[in-house]
Specification:
The chain is α/β, with parallel strands linked by helices and 107 residues long. 20% of the residues lie in helices and 45% in strands. Strands 3-2-5-4 form a four-stranded mixed β-sheet. A three-stranded mixed β-sheet has the order 1-6-7.
Length: 107
């Protein structure tokens, strides 16, 4: 079981946490929504929850709630810039389908 970050994602998170002046990492989870049923939820974390499963890569902690791990186990979190757009991209081996707008997925 593992969640990984690319160096680009780790650099982005580290820079953002430094600008905020606080934070211990990011929390990655899922929520029920959209055309395909599930969507990724990513938020900066100021305090770790005791129930979190923690992965660390390139000096950045990624916290996962235990219920979400079954859907995102093996996911690589990347940060990409394409033209004027930038954002996180999720490479999840458990995804079986994605909606046309790219906002939701199913496993």
């Amino acid at each position: 079981m593992a969640i990984t970050l690319t160096e680009a994602a780790a650099r982005h998170v580290t820079r953002y946490l430094a600008r905020r002046g606080k934070g211990v990492g990011v929390r990655l989870g899922i929520k029920t929504t959209g055309c395909s049923g599930l969507a990724y939820k990513l938020e900066y974390v100021d305090e770790q929850d005791p129930a979190d499963i923690v992965f660390e890569e390139h000096g950045v902690k990624v916290m996962i709630d235990p219920k979400s791990l079954a859907y995102i186990d093996g996911t690589e979190l990347d940060f990409v810039r394409e033209g004027l757009n930038e954002g996180f991209r999720f490479h999840n081996p458990n995804e079986r389908d994605r909606c046309g707008c790219g906002e939701s997925f199913r496993v």
